Amino acid sequence: MKPDDWRLQGQEKHLSGVDICLKKYSDRKNRPHWDHDHCEFCGETFSDTEPDSLIQGYTTKDDYYWICESCYLDFKEMFQWNVITTNVL
Questions:
Q1: H/E element, 18
Q2: Angle at 78 between CA 61 and CA 56, to 5 degrees
Q3: Residue 56 in contact with residue 22, Cβ under 8 Å?
Q4: 37 contacts 26 by C-beta, under 8 angstroms
Q5: Measured between alpha carbons, how far is residue 22 from residues 42, 76, 89 in Å?
Q6: Other Cβ atoms within 10 Å of 23 Cβ, number
Q7: pLDDT in tens, 2-14
Q8: Residues 3 and 75 sit within 8 Å (Cβ to Cβ)
Q9: Whole-angstrom Cα distance, residue 79 to residue 11?
Q10: I need a labelling partner for 39 at 20 to 30 A (CA). Which of 5, 46, 65, 87 fits?
C-alpha cells in the first residue's frame, strides 16, 4: 500500500496495533442505538437496515470503528491489527 493512498487520513492515531474482530453489523453490542456506520478508510456504509450496505466487517472491541473487508486486506500489514476471534458470526 502506498503511503499517499487517498484513504489514509490519520487513522494511525486510533487504529494502529489495535484488536479488531470480524462481526455482523447487527451483532454490535456496544452501540445498539446507531443505525449505520462507515468504513474508517473508504467510507462504505455498514447497516442492517439500509439497502446495499455492508452487513459485516472488522470492528474495534467497542464497535466504534468499522473497517470493510477490502480496506482490511489493503491495510492489515501497515496497521498491524490483532484479529481476535469471537463467537458472533
A1: none
A2: 40
A3: yes
A4: no
A5: 17, 13, 8
A6: 19
A7: 778 999 999 999 9
A8: no
A9: 9
A10: 87
Count Cβ atoms within 10 A of the Cβ of residue 20 and give its class: 0-12 exposed, 13-18 middle, 19 or more buried: buried
Strand ordering across the sheet containing 19-24: 66-67, 56-60, 19-24, 82-83
pTM, two decimals, is 0.90
Which residue's C-alpha cell is 482490511? 72
Handedness of CA 28, 30, 36, 40 (dihedral sign): negative
Give yes or no for a contact between 89 and 24, defined as CB atoms under 8 angstroms apart. Answer: yes
Quote the cell numbers at residue 53: 450496505
CA atoms within 13 A on the CB side of 44: 20
Domains of the chain, by residue range, sit at 12-83
Contact 72, 57 (CB under 8 A): yes
Residue range 55-78: mean pLDDT, rounded = 96
